[in-house]
Structures are given as C-alpha cells and as structure tokens.
Amino acid sequence: MGDYSMADVAVAIEEQSEAMKKFRENIYSRLEKLEAKPQGREVPFEAGKAPAIFSRGMSKDSDPLNIGGFFRGMLSGNWAGVDREHELYKATMTTGSEGAGLIPERVAQEIWFAILTRNALLAAGAPMIQLAQAGVKVPTESVSPSAAWVAEGATISDSGGEFSAQSLTAHKIAFLREISNEMLQDSPAAADVYLRQILLNALSRGLDTGFLNGTGADNQPTGLLTGSPDYAVDKSSTDLTADMLMEAYWALVGKGAVPGQIRSIMAPEGATFLDQQKASTAGSYLEAPIDIERVVSSQVAVASGTPDTSKVLIGDFSQAVRVYSFGGMRLDVDASAAFASDSITFRLVQRVDIQVAQSDLLQRLDGVQVSS
What we know:
Blueprint (H helix, E strand, L loop, with lengths): L5 H31 L30 H10 L6 H10 L1 E2 L5 E2 L2 H12 L3 H4 L4 E4 L5 E7 L18 E6 L3 E10 H6 L1 H26 L18 E8 L2 H13 L8 E4 L1 H13 L11 H6 L13 E5 L1 H4 E14 L8 E14 L5 E8 L3
Parallel strand pairs: 3-10, 7-12
Antiparallel strand pairs: 1-2, 2-10, 4-5, 6-11, 8-9, 9-12, 10-11
C-alpha cells in the first residue's frame, strides 16, 4: 500500500462515496425538474404548448390521466383505483345533443396527446386546431409571398402570393365497441389497459386512413394521397432514391420550409427500399452538403391506410397541413344493446377535417418504384 495506511484508504473511500452521493443527488434533482416540465414530442411551435391544442394554449399535464380507467368508470360505474378521474367526471361531465355525453376537455386532450405519436399526419408535425362548429372558411395559400429590397423613395411592389378560402367540412369518425360487464367489474386494471389500447389504436388507424387515402365520398375527408393536387410531382416509374428526396427537400426549403421540420410519409416498402440502397453502397447514400441520414430517416410510421407504394409525401407539415376538430368528443353508452350477453356497448364520435394550407411546402412524389 506504499505510504498509505488502511485507515487512510478507508477515509479516501468514504470521501469518494460522499462525493458520488452528492453527484447522484444533483443528477436526480435535475431529472425531477425536467420531468416536472411539460413533455411530448419535439415540435416547431411554442415551447411547452400542447401540439394538438394550439388554439387553446394548453400545456401537457406532467401527471396524465388514466384514460382507460376513466372510460371503465363511465361504462360500469366502477371507479376503483381512479379517484382523480372520478372527481373529474363528476365535476365536468356534461350531456350534449342527442343524449350523448361530452367528454371533459382535459380527457379529450389526453386522448389527442396519445394519438399524436400514432397518427402519421400529426406525428409529422401537422398542428390541430379546435373549432366550436363546422361551416367555417379558412384561408389557404398556394404560392407564398416574398419580401424584396427597396431603394429609398422607390415604389414598393406587391409581394405576390396566391390566396383563396376553403370551407371546412365536419367529417365524423366513430368508434363502436361491445365489452363484457365481467371484465369491467372483475378485472379493472386489465380493462383500463384494454380500453385505452383499442380506443387509441382504432382512432389512429381511422384517422390515417381518412387523412391519407380518404376519397371525399361517404363523409370521408379528401386524403393527401388522392386526386391530382398541385403539389403532386410525376416521377413516372422512377426508382425511389435518396437523391430524389434531396431534390424535393431543397425545393421545399427554397419555398420557405423549415429544414429541421421536413418529414416524409411513405409505405414501409419505400423505407425498406432506401435501406437496401444504402446497404449496397457501403453504408452511404451520397455526398451532400446536408446530412442525408436526417432527410431519409425522418420518416413517419403509418398506423393504417398505408400509402400506395408508388407515392411518397414529403414536406414541412407544420406549415403545409392543418387538422381541425369540431366540438368535443362525444361518448354514448347503451346497456340494452347487448343485454342478452351481459355486455355493454359504447360509441365514441369526433368530427374532423384536414386542410392543405400551403401547398408549395408539400410534395407528393407519384409513380415511384420501390421494388428491387
């Protein structure tokens, strides 16, 4: 041990342990402060604001509600383990038109937060705006205006830009499900997980289907992958490549898209095809003045209504597209519909629409090939 005694070593170890203890306490303190702040996916909007509730300016609750427990209590009257949700129900639950219960705004907010990471369009950055009613006209922009440098005393020319108005339509998305009374009463924890899972997954899939592939008929919205919009670019049976995405990327940036917010939505086969190209070129797509990994990997998963493999969406969805919801979510419960099987049926309804607000910040690559 050299010139050090065992006592010296023991003191040194104790001092080191005390230092590590203080270090850990400092780290834990910082983590607690971070966790106390509103969390959620990173978005290009005001820090700490809820991505889905911009029009209300709400921040995400650091202690989220038990969505499944709230629905379980509403369906069965069994509020075991969800006292906070029960108090919220008693304080804010109201009856809307047609006898349907209007879900408290805070619960609806939690549902939209959970859908954010599941729905392709919202996950890509499209903001949601809540409106009290449908039949509203909102401005759209097909060509962005631009500012110009002007000499002293010179005439200032019009900055250009093309604007129009679009009437929003309330498209109803609905969820209907039968569930056993035994599950609600005997297995409340399992019922909470089950109700939350089926509700969020069903809504996410339905919204993806309408927002991407909606036909505009049968009360569906017109999806971004249907029709022949001005943001469609014909690629005529050309292989999908990283170069193609880069070309679209720089075109969008040149028109005002925020580089860090550009995302792509494509079929899984498209992403796989790009990965195969990377593997065949020694792990690199191409040399470029920007990180191609960031462009190619900024893909958003699609829950359902998967895009046609021949179409790829790329754009700054935070500016180009808006999602609107009208009124509140409505929940209706019917204990008689499945009376013979001792089950209960519930229905959830929400009205929504989408709008392409700035079509020059969006591109749809049509006709691409993704087969090797």
